[in-house]
Amino acid sequence: MNWDDTAPPTAEDAALGAPDRLVGADADGEDTAVEAALRPKDLEEFVGQERVREQLDLVLRAARARGATADHVLLSGAPGLGKTTLSMIIAAEMGAPIRITSGPAIQHAGDLAAILSSLQEGEVLFLDEIHRMSRPAEEMLYMAMEDFRVDVIVGKGPGATAIPLELPPFTLVGATTRAGLLPPPLRDRFGFTGHMEFYAPAELQRVIHRSAGLLDVEIEAEGAAEIAGRSRGTPRIANRLLRRVRDYAQVKADGVITREIASQALDVYEVDGRGLDRLDRGVLTALLKLFGGGPVGLSTLAVAVGEERETVEEVAEPFLVREGLLARTPRGRIATPAAWAHLGMAPPQQAGGSGQQGLFGA
């Protein structure tokens, strides 16, 4: 989050400050603790992301064969897809220690200089949310990545002196949820760039079965499929739902997760068959019932739902758009025919082929 009291809150800050959601992809304290136990330790154990995994395996094997430090790696993709896990696997595969920090924590060039000057040779520096790093620190990172040195400015004004500081070779692993915000000079300095895709249901079932084994939870294949179908293509959400279904199975049943138990548990937690939660359905319901499916402005829609504009735009809309339930148009937000079908409602008839019929067809 933005800790600078003099700076206005960003849309991302508002989204991060939104109430906790069971299907939210951002990690909370409990997620961080559990993920440490469930996190795979090597590339063979890592489930999904086949293309990125294969490419990264070649990069790391070649570096080990040369006895050199691995190239800098940029991982992009939505939260919860395994960027942090892959950074730890990179360190493990290279037999190197890892240092973890984040872009928002580096607000001054001196913050970055302090971290870089304490790195060991071959160490992996994981920089999460790298696109949120301050511009002065970003410019210092250019030279550190390319030449393994930084210039430390001593003094102020005309008497200021730049002292070059040599750095040991290291590997920077940058992670970002918004690769488009990275300036080209920074992107170009990464030797390998991998984009993390959302997981298919079959891949999520493998993740759930693996996690269930580590958590000592008995789960049937149909139960895993039910959880996977509501996990929004994200392993972090799948593991979180698994833990909540485990609680339900222990309290309300014999501890075994079947399809019926999983469905009942997730209904209790208000996660429907497509992974929509209360906020998602609230946005769609307001759009359909109050505004006839739209178009309607974002601010008006947010007021109708009783949420902040940024919460609707940054937290709810991305998944609804990806699922084809909502569309952003120059005239405002509109519901698609799939949204009407999902909520079991019939769209109103549009006169003269205008409105939604004109946008989506009869």
TrEMBL record:
Residues that bind ATP: L38, R39, G80, K83, T84, T85, E146, D147, F148, R189, Y199, R236
Any one cellular-component term (Gene Ontology): cytoplasm
Domain AAA+ ATPase as annotated: residue spans: 69-202
GO BP term, example: DNA recombination
Catalytic activity: ATP + H2O = ADP + phosphate + H(+)
Location of region: Disordered: 1-25
Location of the region described as Large ATPase domain (RuvB-L) in the Swiss-Prot/TrEMBL record: 19-199
Root EC class: hydrolase
Subcellular location: Cytoplasm
Keywords: ATP-binding, Cytoplasm, DNA damage, DNA recombination, DNA repair, DNA-binding, Helicase, Hydrolase, Nucleotide-binding
Binding site for Mg(2+): T84
Molecular function in Gene Ontology: ATP binding; ATP hydrolysis activity; four-way junction DNA binding; four-way junction helicase activity
Low complexity composition bias: residue spans: 1-15
This protein's record includes keyword Cell wall biogenesis/degradation: no
Binding positions for DNA per the UniProt entry: R309, R328, R333
Transmembrane region(s): none
CDD domains membership: AAA
Major subcellular location class: cytoplasm
InterPro entries assigned: AAA+_ATPase (IPR003593), AAA_lid_4 (IPR041445), DNA_helicase_Holl-junc_RuvB (IPR004605), P-loop_NTPase (IPR027417), RuvB-like_N (IPR008824), RuvB_wg_C (IPR008823), WH-like_DNA-bd_sf (IPR036388), WH_DNA-bd_sf (IPR036390)
Function: The RuvA-RuvB-RuvC complex processes Holliday junction (HJ) DNA during genetic recombination and DNA repair, while the RuvA-RuvB complex plays an important role in the rescue of blocked DNA replication forks via replication fork reversal (RFR). RuvA specifically binds to HJ cruciform DNA, conferring on it an open structure. The RuvB hexamer acts as an ATP-dependent pump, pulling dsDNA into and through the RuvAB complex. RuvB forms 2 homohexamers on either side of HJ DNA bound by 1 or 2 RuvA tetramers; 4 subunits per hexamer contact DNA at a time.
Family, per entry: Belongs to the RuvB family.
Quaternary data: Homohexamer. Forms an RuvA(8)-RuvB(12)-Holliday junction (HJ) complex. HJ DNA is sandwiched between 2 RuvA tetramers; dsDNA enters through RuvA and exits via RuvB. An RuvB hexamer assembles on each DNA strand where it exits the tetramer. Each RuvB hexamer is contacted by two RuvA subunits (via domain III) on 2 adjacent RuvB subunits; this complex drives branch migration. In the full resolvosome a probable DNA-RuvA(4)-RuvB(12)-RuvC(2) complex forms which resolves the HJ.
Domain notes from UniProt: Has 3 domains, the large (RuvB-L) and small ATPase (RuvB-S) domains and the C-terminal head (RuvB-H) domain. The head domain binds DNA, while the ATPase domains jointly bind ATP, ADP or are empty depending on the state of the subunit in the translocation cycle. During a single DNA translocation step the structure of each domain remains the same, but their relative positions change.
Name of the protein in question: Holliday junction branch migration complex subunit RuvB
Species whose genome carries this gene: Streptomyces inhibens
